[in-house]
Design brief:
- The structure is a single chain.
- The strands form two sheets. A two-stranded antiparallel sheet has the order 1-2.
- With 437 residues, the chain is mainly alpha-helical.
- Helix 1 packs antiparallel against helix 2 and helix 6 packs across helix 7.
- Strand 3 and strand 4 form a beta hairpin.
- The protein contains 15 helices and four strands.
- The chain folds into three domains: 77 residues; 119 residues, Cytochrome c-like domain (Cytochrome Bc1 Complex, Chain D, domain 2), CATH 1.10.760; 135 residues, Cytochrome Bc1 Complex, Chain D, domain 2, CATH 1.10.760.
- The structure holds heme C (HEC) (2 copies).
- The site of one heme C has 20 residues, from helix 5 and helix 6.
């Protein structure tokens, strides 16, 4: 802005020179013409000059305005970083997006129901122990017991003092909860179970008073309200500490991680096995891993137990000292096919040398044997019954069973959908027959 007056000087100076020259050299008429022209120009130039000055003034004003705005925004940002109070509304930036509307105070109040440990947020109202007992018996006692002692496995709300260090601590509002605000807030928001949000403020005050009374923390004439709220001393108020492990212990257990060439030699200690086929009706073929459960497959460094170390070799001679056994006549081709079909069974059954019970019983010598007779295997009632009746595995029975296990043997726990093809049934029966007891 300070530059604008200077702007006039060269312009007028130049005009004065031109004027002088005009008087000296030209005749009058010419000179008069010229003067008119020059006068017009002088007017133009000074008009330009003053409008430039005007513009500069306006720009300066705008700059000041902007400077002020920047300062305002900076101040607001600084305040935010310093952590403005939570109650303060977020600064509104004019003209942003133009979406939505400011929330009504009623809307905010409906959401803003939390109670802080110092009682902030508590609504108007009060309730005494005896009213609390009535309401509690109506709304809460069916689960928490008349005296907050807990019915069956529903939570106990009273007692348990000095059990917190035990192996099986009884954590209740009385023994464990550090803040009364949590009790009020929790009950008000979420109880009675299934009827959350139905308690009035007065009912909540009364119930909380009663829970405190059940815990011997207040006398029977106690009235809970905003005013008396902070008088209640919670048994376990000092039982919680701020978790400072990140500062206190982190250094002790953190080491620089190795990021490359961390092992000299790579050694495979376990293999993951993907054992999936279309799940049988009503069940899954996935296999659990509790190594300890007898009869279930286990996983070890050597590999999972349900994958035979080597596919079992058919015993050369037909295995039957017994009578009712399918004759292995078609020779190798049939057995080979049977071995393939048996892969569907091998997640649960073992056969061959040293075969053990797994999810299902081991199947050595199953053909011609009494149903449900493998020692140490826990059969379903259905098989126990068949066993009691003395039913025997003939080729026909076996085929019928394996075609549709669940309909052949109602109640069997063999979760296998069945073999559809007749050739598979023949082959598996022959294959099973090739393993002696
Ligand atoms: C239908 C059964 C039922 C009713 C009725 C019921 N509650 Fe509960 N209450 C529960 C269950 C279940 C829990 C545990 C909920 C969870 O852990 O998520 C619970 C938890 C609680 C707890 C927290 C206990 C703790 O130590 O974790 C309090 C306090 C409580 N209820 C108070 C009440 C009050 C007060 C009423 C009556 C207004 C009430 N309940 C009615 C089933 C019930
Ligand atoms: C998902 C696991 C599972 C699969 C797969 C499975 N079985 Fe079974 N099997 C069992 C269980 C469990 C039993 C015991 C059933 C009972 O007690 O009800 C059983 C029982 C049997 C029996 C009766 C044994 C006896 O001692 O009486 C035979 C035979 C049998 N299965 C053959 C097969 C054949 C063959 C296949 C493959 C075509 C097969 N199973 C697939 C789990 C399975």
């Amino acid at each position: 802005m300070s530059k604008s007056p200077n702007f006039l000087l060269p312009a007028l100076g130049g005009t004065a020179l031109v004027l002088g020259a005009a008087f000296g050299l030209m005749n009058r008429d010419y000179a008069a013409d010229k003067i008119d022209t020059l006068e017009t120009r002088v007017e133009q130039v000074s008009a330009q000059a003053s409008s430039a000055a005007e513009n500069a003034k306006a720009e300066a004003a705008r700059a000041t305005e902007l400077e002020q705005k920047v300062a305002e925004i900076q101040a607001a940002a600084a305040k935010q970083t310093a952590g403005g109070t939570l109650a303060e509304p977020a600064p509104r930036i004019e003209g942003r997006y133009g979406l939505g509307r400011a929330a009504h105070p009623e809307e905010i109040a409906a959401w803003d129901v939390d109670i802080l440990p110092d009682g902030r947020g508590l609504p108007e109202g009060s309730g005494d122990v005896w009213t609390g007992e009535e309401v509690f018996v109506d709304y809460c006692a069916s689960c928490h017991g008349d005296f907050a002692e807990g019915v069956d496995n529903w939570p106990v709300l009273a007692g348990g003092f000095d059990t917190l260090a035990d192996k099986d601590p009884v954590k209740t509002v009385g023994s464990y909860w550090p803040y009364l605000s949590t009790v009020w807030d929790y009950v008000h928001r979420s109880m009675p179970f299934g009827g959350a949000g139905t308690l009035t403020n007065d009912e909540t005050y009364a119930i909380v008073a009663y829970i405190l009374y059940s815990n011997d923390m207040v006398d029977d004439d106690f009235v809970l309200s905003r005013e008396t709220f902070m008088d209640v001393e919670m048994h376990n108020a000092d039982g919680f500490i701020v978790d400072d492990r990140a500062e206190a212990e982190y250094a002790a257990w953190s080491t620089e991680p190795c990021m490359e060439n961390c092992k000299d030699e790579v050694e495979i200690t376990m293999r993951s096995v993907f054992l999936v086929e279309t799940p049988p009706e009503g069940g899954s073929n996935s296999v659990m891993n509790p190594v300890s459960v007898k009869g279930l497959p286990s996983f070890t460094a050597a590999g999972p137990s349900f994958i035979p170390a080597a596919a079992p070799k058919p015993v050369d001679a037909p295995a039957s000292e017994t009578t009712d056994v399918a004759v292995v006549s078609d020779g190798d081709a049939l057995l080979k096919h049977g071995e393939k079909v048996f892969r569907k069974c091998s997640a649960c059954h073992a056969v061959g040398d040293g075969a053990q019970n797994r999810v299902g019983p081991q199947l050595n010598g199953v053909m011609g044997r009494t149903m449900g007779s493998v020692e140490g295997f826990k059969y379903s009632g259905a098989f126990a019954e068949a066993n009691a009746e003395g039913k025997v595995w003939t080729a026909e029975e076996m085929s019928a069973f394996l075609a549709k296990p669940k309909s052949y043997m109602k109640g069997t726990k063999m979760a296998f959908a069945g073999l559809k093809k007749a050739e598979d049934l023949d082959a598996i029966t022959a294959y099973l027959a090739s393993f002696a007891e």
